């Protein structure tokens, strides 16, 4: 007997047929199907995969089948989660987990049909899942700390800081600072990295913008191999809460301070490493070619050699040859490795503007240029300051709804957005924002690096003048077409407030329209997405 319906799935003992047909679907759903979960994984660990993207409202664990169903509070949150984990396979207990949309629209675990109740084993699993969900709910309301998971307010357990200590074992190939930056940037904005040798081991300290990013990077990467069967990552939280970087070179880098000296005369590698590897970036290896060597992950781009994938290697990772050979890319000059231009498709051609894309994508990096296609105005190119910012914007914005359409963002084949030639018809569709005063990340050490969050229905407002009231701000957002659900000023600083709108789409459109809005008294409103709820 099959108790699933077109809109929901009942948790009962007859799962064999029901879940076998839950294949990848083109249609997004707030219910996500997780496959190949470890048999010893806990409910809290599965829930923690969804926490960065929004509230988790239900969970069904099928440990006998190594599967789980996770229900998010909204479809937007589920879309953001799938888009984030598509290029970077998440790991639980060092095992890759695969996530896809479920065919089901909702999980119904608390309304079981009388004629086919759950088995005792399933009852036990449901009970544990509900207990874990209640703990998460308490976390999100601020009344409880969930062991092993960051809270919704961003506070973490004692000993968890935004700084990770990384030891690399079985170091058969050199691992550069750039390789580390490329790997760890998949989990959030990396602010600083320091590499060094201690006790004949290559180590690194890496600081994220937020402890939440450090938590998920550790959870996903600890125990993984950078290259096949070697260069194993051992990751712990550092006792340090911030790193002090003096030089920007091959050994250390502060990505928020482009003005730091290179420290000429400082060795780029510790003597033991230099002796072990010879000249930096060139090593004799079974896979060496004209480009030095290539990452031993699945397929060697530099040499063209196919290598069998080894369990534990970072399969989804693609490392550029510049990262491998140790050539540092300085942000703001040559850019991070890879492409900084995004192709944005499925836009609403009647409502989208270059300025609107500049404001939206500017939440995740400094936008230099925007071009809406002259003959196909639902497509646009957005050039970010560097590739890591482009990746961040793509992860957070692809799949979000904007002006009634689901926005798609991918890396473009173009390396830069070309400005129109003089006299060339353009209709104002190409704009250069490289010198805009509205860039959020141009100032070294800006706090904005620590406040990068996925789109959410709750917006953070700042730079509010004393004369502006609650009603003034509510009316401002209402006149912009938003439904205001909740509002509160910060108790300690009335220049800031949170406003909760009817949906994530409303919040995105409000941010585009009202960021930098003139509130009078020489105050322009600053709008960003919040990780908090009211």
TrEMBL record:
Query: Which residues does the annotated region (Disordered) include?
Result: 1-27, 417-437
Q: What is this protein called?
A: Polypyrimidine tract-binding protein 3
Q: Which UniProt keywords apply?
A: Acetylation, Differentiation, Erythrocyte maturation, Isopeptide bond, mRNA processing, mRNA splicing, Phosphoprotein, Repeat, Repressor, RNA-binding, Ubl conjugation
Cross-referenced PANTHER family = MATRIN 3/NUCLEAR PROTEIN 220-RELATED
Q: Which GO terms describe its biological process?
A: erythrocyte maturation; mRNA processing; RNA splicing
Which Gene Ontology molecular function entries are recorded, alphabetically? RNA binding
What CDD domains does the database record attribute to this sequence? RRM2_PTBP1_like
Question: Is Phosphoprotein included in the keywords of this UniProt record?
Answer: yes
Instruction: Provide an example Pfam family for this protein.
Output: RRM_8
- UniProt GO cellular component terms: nucleus
Which PROSITE patterns did the record assign? RRM
Q: What organism does the UniProt record list as the source? A: Suricata suricatta
What the protein does comes down to: RNA-binding protein that mediates pre-mRNA alternative splicing regulation. Plays a role in the regulation of cell proliferation, differentiation and migration. Positive regulator of EPO-dependent erythropoiesis. Participates in cell differentiation regulation by repressing tissue-specific exons. Promotes Fas exon 6 skipping. Binds RNA, preferentially to both poly(G) and poly(U). Plays a role in pre-mRNA splicing and in the regulation of alternative splicing events. Activates exon skipping of its own pre-mRNA during muscle cell differentiation. Binds to the polypyrimidine tract of introns. May promote RNA looping when bound to two separate polypyrimidine tracts in the same pre-mRNA. May promote the binding of U2 snRNP to pre-mRNA. Cooperates with RAVER1 to modulate switching between mutually exclusive exons during maturation of the TPM1 pre-mRNA. Represses the splicing of MAPT/Tau exon 10.
- Which residues are in the RRM domain? 30-114, 164-240, 340-414, 457-532
Instruction: Fetch the SUPFAM superfamilies from UniProt.
Output: RNA-binding domain, RBD
């Amino acid at each position: 007997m099959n108790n699933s319906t077109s809109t929901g799935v009942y948790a009962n003992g007859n799962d064999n047929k029901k879940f076998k047909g839950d294949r990848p679907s083109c249609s997004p759903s707030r219910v996500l199907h997780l496959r190949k979960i470890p048999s010893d994984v806990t409910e809290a660990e599965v829930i923690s995969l969804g926490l960065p993207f929004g509230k988790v409202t239900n969970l069904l664990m099928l440990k006998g089948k190594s599967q789980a169903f996770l229900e998010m509070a909204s479809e937007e949150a589920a879309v953001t989660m799938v888009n984030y984990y598509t290029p970077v396979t998440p790991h639980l207990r060092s095992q890759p987990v695969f996530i896809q949309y479920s065919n089901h629209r909702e999980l119904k675990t608390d309304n079981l049909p009388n004629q086919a109740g759950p088995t005792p084993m399933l009852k036990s699993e449901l009970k544990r899942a509900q207990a874990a969900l209640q703990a998460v709910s308490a976390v999100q309301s601020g009344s409880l700390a969930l062991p092993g998971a960051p809270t919704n307010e961003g506070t973490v357990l004692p000993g968890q800081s935004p700084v990770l200590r990384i030891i690399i074992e079985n170091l058969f190939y050199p691992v550069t600072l750039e390789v580390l930056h490329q790997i760890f940037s998949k989990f959030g904005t990396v602010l600083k990295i320091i590499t060094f040798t201690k006790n004949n081991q290559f180590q690194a300290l890496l600081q994220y913008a937020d402890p939440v990013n450090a938590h998920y990077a550790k959870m996903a990467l600890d125990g993984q191999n950078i290259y096949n069967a070697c260069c194993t990552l051992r990751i712990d939280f550092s006792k340090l809460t911030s790193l002090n970087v003096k030089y920007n070179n091959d050994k250390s880098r502060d990505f928020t301070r482009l003005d730091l000296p290179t420290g000429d005369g400082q060795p780029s590698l510790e003597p033991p490493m230099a002796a072990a590897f010879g000249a930096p970036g060139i090593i004799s290896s079974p896979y060496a070619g004209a480009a030095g060597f290539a990452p031993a992950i699945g397929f060697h781009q530099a040499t063209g050699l196919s290598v069998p994938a080894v369990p534990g290697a970072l399969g989804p990772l693609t490392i550029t040859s510049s990262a491998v050979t140790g050539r540092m890319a300085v942000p703001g000059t040559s850019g991070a490795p890879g492409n900084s231009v995004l192709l944005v498709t499925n836009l609403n051609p009647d409502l989208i503007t270059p300025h609107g894309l500049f404001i939206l994508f500017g939440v995740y990096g400094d936008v230099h240029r925007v071009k809406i296609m002259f003959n196909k105005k639902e497509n646009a190119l957005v050039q970010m300051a560097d590739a890591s910012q482009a990746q961040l914007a793509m992860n957070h914005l692809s799949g979000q709804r904007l002006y009634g359409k689901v926005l798609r963002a991918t890396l473009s084949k173009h390396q830069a957005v070309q400005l129109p030639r003089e006299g060339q018809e353009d209709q104002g569709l190409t704009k250069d924002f490289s010198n805009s005063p509205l860039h959020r990340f141009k100032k070294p050490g800006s706090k904005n690096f620590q406040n990068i969050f996925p789109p959410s229905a709750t917006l953070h407002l700042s730079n509010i003048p004393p004369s502006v009231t609650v009603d003034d701000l509510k009316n401002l957002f209402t006149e912009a077409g938003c439904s205001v659900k909740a509002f509160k000023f910060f108790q300690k600083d009335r220049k800031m407030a949170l406003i909760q709108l009817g949906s994530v789409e409303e919040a995105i459109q409000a941010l585009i329209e009202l960021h930098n809005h003139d509130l009078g008294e020489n105050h322009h409103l600053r709008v960003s997405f919040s990780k908090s709820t009211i």
